[in-house]
Amino acid sequence: MADAVQTDRLQRVDASGQTGSVASATQSHRLAAGGLVDRAKPLSFSFDGKIMAGFAGDTLASALVANGVKLVARSFKYHRPRGILTAGAEEPNALVELRSGARREANTRATTTELYDGLIAESQNRWPSLRHDVMAVNSLLSPIFVAGFYYKTFMWPAKFWEKLYEPAIRRAAGLGKASIEADPDHYEKAWAHCDVLVVGSGPAGLAAALAAGRTGARVILAEEDNRLGGRLLSDGGEIDGKPASDWLAGALREIESLANVRIMARTAVFGVYDGGTYGALERVNDHVATPPAYQPRQRLWRIVAKRAVVAAGAIERPIVFPGNDRPGVMMASAVRSYINRFAAMPGRRVALFTNNDDGWRTAEAVRRAGGIVTAVIDSRGDGSKAQREPDTRLLAGVVSEVHGGVDGVRSIVVRDTNGRTQQIEADCLAMSGGWNPNVALSSFHRGRPVWRDDIAAFVPGQCPPGMVMVGAANGDFSLAACLRAGHEAGTTAAEAYGAKGKTGATPAGGDEGYAIAPLWHVEGGKAFVDFQHDVTASDIKLAQREGFESVEHLKRYTTLGMATDQGKLSNVNGLALMAEATGRNIADTGTTIYRPPYAPVAIGALAGHHRDENFHAWRLTPSHHWAAERGAVFVDTGLWKRAQWYPIAGEKDWLESVTREVKAVRNGVGFCDVSTLGKVDVHGPDAGKFLDRVYINTFSNLAVGKARYGLMLREDGLVYDDGTTSRLAEDHYFLTTTTAKAGLVMQHLEFCRQVLWPELDVQLTSVTDQWAQFSIAGPNTRDLLKKLCDPSEDLSNEGFPFMGVREVSLRGGMRARLYRISFSGEMAFEIGVPARYGEAMARNLMLAGAEFGVTPYGTEALGVMRIEKGHVAGPELSGTTTADDLGLGKMASKKKDYIGRAMAGREALIASDRQVVVGIKPVDKANRLRSGAHVVPKGAVPGPDTDQGYLTSVCYSPMSGHWIALALVERGRERLGEIMRAYDPLRGEDMEVEITSPVFYDPEGGRQRG
Amino acid sequence: MAEFSWQAQSPLRKALSPGRLGLAAGQAGVAMTEISDFSLVQVMARRGRAADLAKAAKKEWGVAAPDRPAAIAGKGATLIWSGPDQFLVVRIGNGLQNAVLPLAAVFGDAASLSDQSGGRCLIQISGNKARDALVKVSSIDLHETVFPVGAAAATSIDHTGVNLWRGPDAPGGSPIYNLLVFTSFADSLWHTLADAAAEYGIEASRTPLA
């Protein structure tokens, strides 16, 4: 097997005598030359408080390797010492707390963390220190902490569970601690579009991107790593007759020159969604201490791709043998990565344990770097076709024990095929159990991976529409096959969308042998399957004995594959052990499938811009800034920010402000911005007919220049929404909705128009945002309006009767729509001007009403006045009430059909014992009513059987001088004067109340018509 | 007698302070401009009258009304597709004039017209980083070949309806995107857009429709 890395100059730093630079002082395991680190750019970092040095191009893991660090973590459950196992995203052991303070991130993989100057990392899950971890005692208790341990504790006395077991277990087992401070960085989301998305930039991905890119198709090449090249960076090889590194450099030059190809490095594609949408996480500024000003730390991409070529590579599989989790035991491919890519030696005396030819490449790499291969243990025995180098000590057998501890491997015990054992010196054991194609993305639409005996691995089954998997991800492990498949898939994907350019020749590479003979388990001591969740071979057997044989049960019972690495290393070994235990083959045993995200995604990235004050969009009323200048207190109603009340100096609480506002309106005049009400232009010759079908009452007979209150039902006969609708012209109505239902009612109306009655000639336009609308109310309203309106406007009862509507001229050259409608029960008008004049309107209303003590009022006073008048609103229009429940049954026309009419006649909806709207007042006038309190008969024991209703809307009524409420009460209208109980167990209150008419103020309604 | 003045107020009066925002170094990558003093009318064809609207538009402004997502500049008006058999007419104007009356004269009884001059805020995003900023908020493919000059979309940004169209390129060749947003959402969307563009440096301004 060829190796592109130049080998002749490779020597260890300490051996070459090049120890002059400060940077290399700590780097006892750094090679003097070679690799892709930049020795001209030394970086310093700290791990567990110890200052060390590395180079640009390092990961935290490679820098630790270069510094000779073996112990980096404690395991999740048993607190066993752990070292670096891999060199990639699959790392289960080397998880650290990265950064400090508010930026501290728990469980960060050292293997994917790019080194930067000043990086701070701490090991986790240990106390008081990584070397001396008190909780390592858990390891002695391991017979207790077996599979299903967590579930079994539920069988212990329940009273101890919450107080004792759970907190104790959570303290003992766990990983890093996240910062509890707010994240100072920001995250964002973005969209990208392309014809062909290529995932992965190894040989297959590059060949695909080149082929597709050359046709002129829009290509996105996404690579999780910061550097393009995939395994070419670590394994080299020969392509088109030259070293892979030369080919790679040329390929990158070409691909970067193509304007139609976008390269996205540091971008992990983690999910596949409908319509060819892929989720990807770009780590924009994870490789620096703090992001530059205004830049995000991470960006979540939604990539919309017509086709996707996934060349996600393969992940090397550990072997399950006793001691396989000791620090210093490392994946064979990772050893090659550290040596060839990072110029860092994981060990000086390396033993290799393999069941396939590929593992042998590690022996070669170690030797070329000047290391010693103390033995190659090949489980295939004499059948091995591996390339043997003359001076290699080849042992046919298995590793049955590893000696070593916090300082790494000291030696290993090899058991040959006859059961004889011998001890081999080594400070690093490289292992290769074969390769698992990285099939995750193929499974995200429920595609089930398919087992292939010849490579002893699962390959992709049915891929999501538009996606193909190529290269090692598809089970093609040789360089030649990867290049061929990538080139072909890139060409096909681009041509599928009409791209016609020349794709060039297929790059040629070597056809290396693989020749795997599976080895699933070596019997003996504690052998780990899932390193991160501390699941051992015996846990899997235990699960089988206890009946958890299905792969789904196995996963949940043992937590196999449920750690942050999501079983990337452990799944197949676990399944194989279950197959062995049940006497089935792996294909029949089956596999759990993968779900997004493929790689961890921070919640911050999913939230993006939507945090803090940007949690959701906000809507401002036309008079918002004017109200803010007056010191209004705002309340969120849906997305709107509405003025709730306008406190003035000296008022001690909201109630005092609101009471003042109500009295000012009832005794003088006030105004309120009601622009939030939904407004719809209903146009067309059939507009009246349309409204007749939508509302329970009739609108086709409404005169031009008049408004009418309307009530609409849902199809099921319950009340949907209400509001006034005015007829502005023969073919033009202006419909209003409640604030809360504005969007929904518009959708409903459009549905009616487009789907139910397409034959009607009617057009709908939302004009909610067009009109600044103010309610002006109080006995002095007309006086105020006379000041504001042109003197020619007749505002008298005759000239502008109750429920009249017309356009008027205002002083200063403005036209406005004036509606004589009242929600407060007072003499009132609503006035509408285009939204841009809303602020001017508020100022002019203050000016016009100055001599009458005009008072702006907020939504609280608005609510108080509607409750005093018994007008129903949101709490009563709750989706459970009928028109009759609300006291509006008489509005329903009997002469026409309308939405909800038939269903409103259902037995339960016309039952005589329904809860209907009534008024409530406390018997003891000093008592405060509470909304939500239950209404039960006096003397009854409160409970579901005696519950006869509840208080829906509650306020202090300035006009009554005590608290009042609207309530829904069973047969309420027959019970006026009855004393009942308002029972509120939530607040521990219980009081006698009287059932009254819902209209507390001006029951004759004379004031609004005055 | 009190003097009443009717000063139009931009929904961005607090949000937009003209000048440099975000990254201060170098040339601003994005210009965010509020376009003021426009009149806007929603035109919807009465049942079966779409062809009459197209004809009337052609007669009045020299261009047919758009029957697919597009923004078409005619003499004295830009017509922007907003849905099947409906479009928006943008013209120079202000809210003191009745925006509907002149269009009623153009379309007669073939159209239903609603004044939206106060209902929308027009924000222009331009500059060599305009697209980079917009992809953070818009799911629309803005690539040159897919969304060329004159392309339009009725879409949503930050869960809010937006009419988006591409105007003629700036003299320097960088694209100009127009976003017609609901007045009540304008303050919120401006902040969202400014956050998206901050890393490129922003030049904020307002200017009347020309």
UniProtKB/TrEMBL annotation, chain B:
UniProt cross-references to InterPro entries, sorted A to Z: SoxG (IPR007375), TrmE/GcvT-like (IPR027266)
Pfam family, one: SoxG
Domain of life from the UniProt record: Bacteria
Entries under SUPFAM superfamilies matching the protein: Folate-binding domain
Gene3D superfamilies per the UniProt record, alphabetical: Heterotetrameric sarcosine oxidase, Probable tRNA modification gtpase trme, domain 1
Protein name: Sarcosine oxidase subunit gamma
